[in-house]
Amino acid sequence: MLPRHPKAKSFVESGLFQDVTRFAELESRIRALEDPTERQAAFALFAEGVLTTRAIHRAVEVWPTGVVPLDARRRLGLPETLPGADGLFRSLEGEIHAYQLLFRPEREKTAPGESDRFAQLLAVSAQPLLFTNGDAFSNGWKKIKSGHAVRGVDLDRLDGRAFQAIRRWLQGAGTTVERPATTPLHTWALEQLQIRMQSSDQASLLLPPGAEGELLALRLIQRLGGRRVVVVLTTHPEQLVHTIRHWRQQAGWGDLAALQVAEEPANPLEIDFPLTHHPDGVRRFLAWHHTGVRVILATRAMIPLLTRAMMGFPQADYLIGFGTFGDPLPAARRLNLQSILPAQRRVIPDAPPR
Fold first, then answer.
1. Residue 340 domain boundaries
2. DSSP string of 197-246?
3. By Cβ atoms counted within 10 A, which residue in 44, 73, 109, 317 is the most buried?
4. Would you say 55 and 93 are in contact if contact means Cβ atoms under 8 Å apart?
């Protein structure tokens, strides 16, 4: 997917993105642009690049305002304009979401009344996205009960590989995501897991805590292929967010489609991905035709909801359960997990003894 913003070529030729390795560098260059219209356009191109290359929300098509082609409007039933929207994107599941841009030159707190424009967008679009470099919001934003946001703190997490991918996309080289090589530990662990799964529908695998355990689970999912359904359960919402953000850095979602199921956050704008807390959202995801692997990431508090939502659908192919950042599950919790949420195969990671 090539850049669609009308000023993409001129910003590339100006060197705006050249040699950028972190967001603070790009933010400084955008801030230095004298014309506020130019600053907004540069930030809009960056937002298109992030949505396209980092697969936030699994965007497969992104249209900045004013460039939605007629054939796409007819094919997808898109409006020519949407009040409050600075662009639209289509997810892997075929859902259309609107996004709104808000660039703060000094990352200053949003002004009173700026939330009205996003509220206007909420009235005409389901789960819109606020894309901003700001982190501090005025009191008006606290009334927002839906939607989600990419904030400055999220953009600060982008590394050199992320900006290299954006530059490649700007130069017309596509959106291929560089994936780290599988380590010998991962190869050995996956081989052991496959051996154990040949004689049982459940395997307990010794994992290092934290990021290494999460990465091994991702490698297992990537190996599955085909039209599989995988449920990944975590103990706390914080680990759910941690796992998703870690996986996002390690893999593109071209062959993986993910749905996050969790309780509605107190402040939706602290979450930079859409989520569902209703059985219908899970059912739509399961009924959707996808040739790759579908991953449902949920907290254990959502097991009753998942059980209701999955009635009438085939069992999940794999159930992967995490304790607290790699900690093992108590035996009683394992038994409860097996009996309440059926799956053809279960992987229960165990952390090394301390």
1. 184-350
2. HTT-SEEEEE--TTHHHHHHHHHHHHHH-SS-EEEEEESSHHHHHHHHHH
3. 44
4. no
pLDDT (tens place) for every residue of the chain, 354 residues total: 788 999 999 999 999 999 999 999 999 999 999 999 999 999 999 999 998 887 556 677 899 988 877 777 776 677 767 788 899 888 766 778 889 999 999 998 887 778 888 888 888 777 788 899 998 887 777 777 677 788 898 899 888 888 998 999 998 866 555 555 667 777 777 777 777 667 666 555 555 556 777 787 777 777 776 778 888 888 777 777 777 777 766 765 556 677 888 876 655 556 656 678 889 889 988 887 777 778 888 888 898 999 999 999 988 888 887 754 344 444 434 434 555 577 777 766 554 444
Domain boundary among 110, 144, 170: 170
21 and 57 in a single domain? The answer is yes
